[in-house]
Write a structure and sequence with these properties.
Layout: H1 2-49, H2 53-66, H3 75-78, H4 81-91, H5 100-125, H6 141-157, H7 162-181, H8 187-207, E1 222-228, E2 233-239
Antiparallel strand pairs: 1-2
Helix pairs in contact: 1-8, 4-6, 4-7, 5-6, 5-8, 6-7, 6-8, 7-8
C-alpha cells in the first residue's frame, strides 16, 4: 500500500515538473515571437523586392539625386559606431544589461553568425551589384553588421536609457543608406541585411549562449574600450591597481 502511495506521489511530481517545463517552453516561445516580427518583415520584404523593376527604378532615382559619380567612404566606418557606443555607455556608467565581457562575447558570437549568413547568401544567390563590380550584392554585410551592433546596444541599455539605447539605429540606418547611395547595394539588399542583423542579435539575447562563462565577472578594475582611427577600429583593455 505504501509503495503504491509513493508511486502515485512520484508520478504526480513528475507530471507537475513536465507541466512546468512545458509552461516555461510555451512562455519562452511567446516571448520570442514578437522579437521575430520586425526582422522577418525586413527579410521577406527584401526577398520579394529583390530583382524587381521597382528597386531598379529606385536605384536610378537615388543615383540621379546624389549624382552618378557620388561616393562616400563613411559607410565603412559608420557600421561600427553602435559597437563603440556599447563600450562608451560602460565608460559613462550607464547601467547595462551585461558585464563588458558578456557584451564582447555577444558581439563576437553575433559577428560570426552574421558573417556566415550574409556571405553564404552572397555566394549562394550571386546577385549582381548595382555598380556591376561583383555578384555578391544580396545581402548587405555592412548593413547586417551595423544593425547587429545597433540591436545589441538596444538590448544592453533599453532598461536604463531608452534614448541612448535607440540611438545606434541612427548610425545603422545611415550605413544602409550610404550603401545604396554609393551604388554598392540595392534597396532589397539593405532591407535583408538589416533584418539579418536584428534577427541574430534578438536570438542571442533570447537564448543567451555561454551565459555562465565569464572569467572577469567579479573583477571591477578592468576596463575595455574601443579606439577609432581613420583606417581601423581597435580595442584596448586596462587594469587599475
Amino acid at each position: 500500500m505504501r509503495s503504491n502511495i509513493l508511486l502515485v506521489l512520484i508520478v504526480m511530481l513528475l507530471s507537475q515538473h513536465l507541466s512546468a517545463q512545458n509552461d516555461t517552453l510555451s512562455i519562452s516561445k511567446k516571448r520570442l515571437l514578437p522579437k521575430l516580427i520586425i526582422p522577418a518583415v525586413l527579410i521577406i520584404s527584401g526577398s520579394i523586392l529583390s530583382g524587381s523593376e521597382a528597386e531598379k527604378n529606385w536605384q536610378v532615382d537615388i543615383r540621379n539625386k546624389v549624382g552618378n559619380d557620388y561616393h562616400n567612404g563613411l559607410d565603412d566606418y559608420v557600421q561600427y559606431l553602435p559597437y563603440a557606443q556599447i563600450y562608451l555607455g560602460d565608460l559613462m556608467a550607464f547601467e547595462a544589461k551585461n558585464h563588458w565581457f558578456d557584451q564582447t562575447k555577444n558581439i563576437f558570437l553575433g559577428g560570426i553568425a552574421t558573417l556566415v549568413i550574409t556571405h553564404s547568401l552572397k555566394r549562394g544567390i550571386g546577385k549582381l551589384r548595382p555598380d556591376g563590380s561583383s555578384t555578391h550584392s544580396f545581402s548587405s554585410g555592412h548593413t547586417a553588421t551595423a544593425f547587429l551592433g545597433g540591436t545589441i546596444l538596444y538590448h544592453e541599455y533599453k532598461e536604463s536609457n531608452m534614448l541612448y539605447a535607440s540611438s545606434g539605429y541612427l548610425f545603422s540606418t545611415t550605413a544602409a543608406g550610404l550603401r545604396v547611395a554609393n551604388n554598392r547595394h540595392w534597396v532589397s539588399d539593405v532591407l535583408a541585411g538589416a533584418g539579418i542583423g536584428i534577427l541574430v542579435a534578438n536570438l542571442i539575447y533570447h537564448f543567451e549562449p555561454l551565459k555562465n562563462w565569464n572569467p572577469f565577472k567579479n573583477t571591477k578594475n578592468i576596463t575595455f574600450s574601443p579606439i577609432i582611427t581613420n583606417d581601423k577600429v581597435t580595442f584596448t583593455a586596462g587594469l587599475t591597481f
